[in-house]
Structure formats: structure tokens, C-alpha cells
Amino acid sequence: MVTNENLPNNNEADALRGYIGKLRLSREDAAKAAEKYQPKTEGQSAPDPFPKIPASLLSAEHIRDYVLETGLISPFYLSNEKKSPVKKAAYEGKIGNVAYLYNKDGERETIFDPRKNDNLIVPANSIVFVECDIDFRLPEFIALRFNLQIQHVHRGLLLGTGPLIDPGFWGKLCIPLHNLTDKEYPIPRNEGLIWLEFTKTTSAVKDGETPIGRRPLGTTGGFWEIDEYLKKASKQNGPCEIPIRSSLPSMFYDSKRQAEEARDAASKAKKSADDMLGLGFLGVLAVVIGVAALWGTFYSEIRAQNRVLEPRLSAAETAIEGHLTGLNSLANGSAEIQFGLDEIALAQERTQNELAQKISNLESQIESLSKKAEEYEVKLNNLQTLSGQTKQDQSTDE
After folding, report:
1. Whether residue 98 is found in the same domain as residue 203
2. Residues 257 and 217 occupy one common structural domain
3. Which of 246, 276, 306 is the last residue before a domain boundary?
4. What is the three-class DSSP state of 223?
């Protein structure tokens, strides 16, 4: 049997739990009463003291009778008050002298001492192993079931074990509690934790017969403490003690890490989109400036060519008018005059041909520039449409 000198003794702890009612059976008296009902490997334990009580779920009166006679639980209090530990077919269990938690380093540590703590604090998303305050010394013909009090269930606490306590069990009860909430859960040391139900079995072993069925822990090895259960449970797969922890904290940590990574990725994507939007706007602005510059160049070139051609055209017109005047006045002149007129006509024709060629070239250039202007105008309209859609998408995302 494991002992721990740092834990309080039962008398110290019982005085702090605030039991309600009259003590009808102490721990010491229960140990003495239970001796003759303890299951034995050889020989026969004492028979059922109340054979007329049928095998069934026991009521409060029959719970009292069996407890006082066999010492199957202790300490045992009776009361008719509102907070009585006895209900019509159940008895209340409180927090015992110790509670354990496996920390993040895999070490088992004590998290409750009734001499120092008014409350047992069950950390968020964790499993703690709590000792029940009751000493159990069950005879061969009584089985117990226990369940977490409903107020704790409604607040997010769950009982993490099967509720059957086998006939013949001697020891302390180890209760795994799961806190499924994201907040610490306090349980006052004087508040009820579980309800126990008592069932009389149909067991009827006759003298000389060997009982059938595997005996529970604590039947032949003394009075078991919960420290022994945890060591046994954590060494099922080898000699080393394996931490018994909830997977929820690590799962929440992984989920949080993945959420942070996703948030960072989304932030980077948004920044990239904003950058692309900025570059798109600058691109549109550059195209607009380019088209404006093209139109400016085109207009300047046309004006420059007009400035060059206007004096020549004016001079040609003046010359033609002068030649025509001369022709009119010299219509009846000599052959030299006629020759001069022919030369003038040829010059006029050459001049007109040159002017016509230059005008044709200018028209071709104007037509080419107009086509380019139309192409840039189409591209500008497409860019403006794309910019409008991008702004609309960004507004929708926001």
C-alpha cells in the first residue's frame, strides 16, 4: 500500500468538508464491521445479513441497514435536511484528500490539499484524477454505481470512467474528471461531487463452492489508494509511467497555429492584391499619359508641316497669278513670250504635282496616326474597365 506523509489524515480532512447530519458510522468502526465480510481467497466470508431484502436497487432505509452492518462505506452521515448526503436511493460523495494532474512535462503533480485549498480547480481542457472522500469495503453481495452530480455535467464537466464498483472492492475511488470548457472549473471541497447507487446482487455462493468471476483490485492486496491505480494504468505498455493527459490542449494549440498561419497568408495575399492594384492604376495612368503625348506629337507635327507648306502654297499662288497676268497682257506677244508661258505652265504643273504628292503623303500620315490613336483609345477603355472591376472586387472583399 502506498502512503504519502504529505497528505492530510482522514480526521483532519473530514473536519473541513462540512458534512451535514449525524455521523452514524466512523471510518474506524466501519473498518472493524467490514472485517468479517471481506472477500477471502480461502474459506467463506460472512453471509448476507439481510437475506429477505430482494436483489435490487437499494432504497435509503436498506442502504442505512447494510452500511451500519457491513461497513461498506464510511464515513456515513444521516440527515433529513435539504443538503442531506442521503437521497431516496443514493448517497453523496465529495472530494477526497488529493487530486492529481499530469502537467505539460508529463509529470504527475498534486493540485489539491483540503488543508490549503477551499476549491479543487480543474484546468480548462484537461483531465484530473480525484480521490473520493469515502472508504469502500464492499461485501460479495453489494455492487455500487456512481455518476457525476448533474450540476457539474450541465457546467461542462464529464466523468471519464465506467461507473460500476465491483462487489468485494476495498479501497479509495479514483475519479477522472474531464473539463471540456475553455475556463477553469472550481469545485468547493464541501460540495457534493458524485451520487452512489447501491445494488444487491443475486450472488448466492454456497459453502464449499468457489466463487466465479475475477476479483476486483483491492480484494486481496489491502486497501488501495488512487496513487496505485494511476501507476498501474500509466504502466500498461511497459515499465515507464506514461502521462495521462487530454489531447485537447495540443489540438487547440495546433488549430491556433494553423489559424495564425492562415491569417498571415491572407494578410500577405491582401497586400499583394493591393500592390497589384496600385501597379494597375499606375499602368493606366502611364497609358493615358502616353496617348496624350502621342496626340500632342501628332498635333505638333501637323502644325509644323502646315507652317512649312503655307508659305510655299502662297508663293505658288502668287506666282501663278503673276504668270496668268503676264499671259493675259502678252497674249499676242512673240514666240519668246509663248516659250515663257510654256515654261511657266510646266513649272506650275511641277509645283502642283509636288504639292499633290506632299498632300497625299500628309493624308497617309494622318490616316496612320488616326488608326494608332483609335487603337490606343480601345486599350485605354479596356484598362479603365479592368480598373473599375478591380476596385469593385476590392470593395466586395472588404
Report:
1. yes
2. no
3. 246
4. coil
pLDDT tops 50 at residue 2:
no
Confidence of residue 66 (pLDDT cuts 50, 70, 90): very high
5 assigned to some structural domain: no
Range of the domain at 181: 10-246
Asked if the structure places residue 2 within a domain, the reply is no
Of 387, 386, 394, 395, nearest in space to 274 by CA: 394
pLDDT at residue 250 above 60? no
User: Which residues have C-beta within 8 Å of that of residue 260, sequence separation ≥ 6?
Assistant: none
Specify the DSSP element, H or E, that contains 271.
helix 248-329
DSSP string, 70-96: H--EESEEE--STT-SEETTEEEE-EE
Same domain (yes/no): 240, 260: no
Residue 200 contacts residue 53 (beta carbons within 8 Å):
yes
Residue 166 contacts residue 146 (beta carbons within 8 Å): no
Residue with grid cell 492604376, as numbered in its chain: 281
For the chain, the residue count is 398
**Which residue did the predictor score with more confidence, 312 or 243?**
312
Of 185, 216, 246, the residue at which a domain comes to its end is 246
Rounded to whole angstroms, the Cα distance separating 247 from 237 reads 19
The strand order across the sheet containing 142-148 reads 86-87, 90-93, 194-200, 142-148, 164-165
Q: What is the DSSP string of 322-388?
A: HHHHHHHHTTT--HHHHHHHHHHHHHHHHHHHHHHHHHHHHHHHHHHHHHHHHHHHHHHHHHHHHHH
Alpha carbon 345 to its chain centroid, in Å, reads 99
Which of 161, 190, 186 is CA-nearest to residue 175? 161
Q: Which residue has the cell 499633290?
A: 356
For residues 302 and 372, membership in a common domain is answered with: yes
**What is the band of 86 on the pLDDT scale with cuts at 50, 70, 90?**
very high
262 shares its domain with 348? yes
**Shared domain check, 100 and 225:** yes
pTM listed for this prediction: 0.59
Same domain, 221 and 297: no
Looking at the 3D structure of the chain, how many domains does it have?
Answer: 2
Res. 43 pLDDT band, cuts 50 70 90: low
Among the residue ranges 44-53, 233-242, 373-382, the one predicted with the least confidence is: 233-242
Residue 251 pLDDT greater than 60, yes or no:
no
